[in-house]
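Methods — Computational structure assignment.
A single polypeptide chain was analysed. Its primary sequence is given first, followed by the predicted tertiary structure written as structure tokens.
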Amino acid sequence: MRLIVDLVRCQSYGQCVYAAPTIFRFNGEEALEFDYAPDDALREEVERAVAACPVQAIRIGLPDAAAPVEEGS
């Protein structure tokens, strides 16, 4: 799982920190830090954080896919 956080949209309300403290935290008063690739076992916690964000700055994305292999060069 991959987390996508729009830091321009984020207003530092901190609801994600309360909903998923093992994934989101503040460094200082307003600088949000987060685990951009949390373990799938934390999905429920991540979903709570996504739902709790009042400005909808958090999304769950797809994990990075491996680059396609080109055949015959």
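Note: The mean pLDDT is 88.
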